[in-house]
């Protein structure tokens, strides 16, 4: 009877994936030697492939000792591993949404840099333009302190400072919002799900909300599936490096953490989320998943019952390992009067579908938190 080995392949998009060509980043491969027979493989480890247009990849396949490829049908049984710490710390409980000014400031930075380059180029070629008889604009000087500056540069400087000012205002508003909410947090909802959950099928259940506050306009519920970043330790070790040495291609050097390590792969450079309170492990902003898709949404009525349609594409069930992480979650979105929405997140276990999952040409999501929920719902 054939013995099968489990092959995991990952080429996960780094934080700033637009700067990388996927083919330049090596594929991390893990071969797990097992004594599992064909029947045991069918029951526990279904195959799947998730990849983007650029070539970012998450794959699980099987090869026998004699190099035979697995062609069997996957099982619908659950992956038996527990939720990874990343889920417990950053995708479970109450979350808030960053201020829209973060997104506005980031877009304004590009405009400010282009304006600065155009201004410097114009000031450089202005003497040539004067020689050929073209009138100059904004080149007269104005004295500030002991130095003279072109009037045009004085006009441009506020545009350069505006993104920084907006970011400061947005961070201040976010910190105040965190402070106001956590002084009096709401009671967590109670979710009762019907039977086992399988990918490709509707999700049914009941949501009991212990309290509804006066400023809550509506409460909607939807579910969400996506991929979480692999463990940095696993990526480094499987690439043949050591944690204290130069990291492999696609990873940055490790950053100091003000909470528990292991909550990211180290590629974000501290830019994945706006300023957060440091006394809350994992933070208060829900990080986006790089590959993801949303299922159905429903406004909760008084009885709290819901039935949510599955995501449009067929996704694998729950996988919680150091290298491969397929994550499903249920999200309550509470719209509030004159305030940003409030989110409550509950991770859920989902069984694999009956057929093999093969997701091609997925779009990689922006990894910055302020881009996640804005404009989606």
What would your notes on this structure say?
By secondary structure, the chain is of the alpha+beta class. Among the domains are: 85-98 and 188-353, Immunoglobulin-like, CATH 2.60.40; 104-178, no CATH class. Helices cover 22% and strands 28% of the residues. It has helices at 38-44, 85-90, 101-131, 151-183, 232-238, and strands at residues 4-11, 28-36, 48-52, 57-64, 93-96, 141-144, 147-150, 190-193, 203-208, 216-227, 292-299, 305-308, 319-320, 325-336, 339-348, 357-362. The strands form 4 sheets. Strands 5, 10, 11, 13, 14 and 15 form a 6-stranded antiparallel sheet that branches. Strand 3 (48-52) and strand 4 form a beta hairpin. The longest helix has 33 residues, at 151-183. 29% of the residues are buried.
Mean pLDDT: 81
The count of strands amounts to 16
Rg from Cα = 25 Å
Which shape, going by the Cα principal axes? globular
CATH-level-2 architecture of the domain at 85-98 and 188-353: Sandwich
Question: What do we call the CATH topology of the domain at 85-98 and 188-353?
Answer: Immunoglobulin-like
Order of helices and strands: EEHEEHEHEEHEEEHEEEEEE
- Low-pLDDT regions: 72-78
Structure class:
alpha+beta
Largest sheet: 6 strands, antiparallel
Helix content: 10-25%
The total count of helices amounts to 5
What amount of the residues lies in strands? 25-35%
End-to-end separation in angstroms reads 52 Å
What's the CATH class of the domain at 85-98 and 188-353, please? Mainly Beta
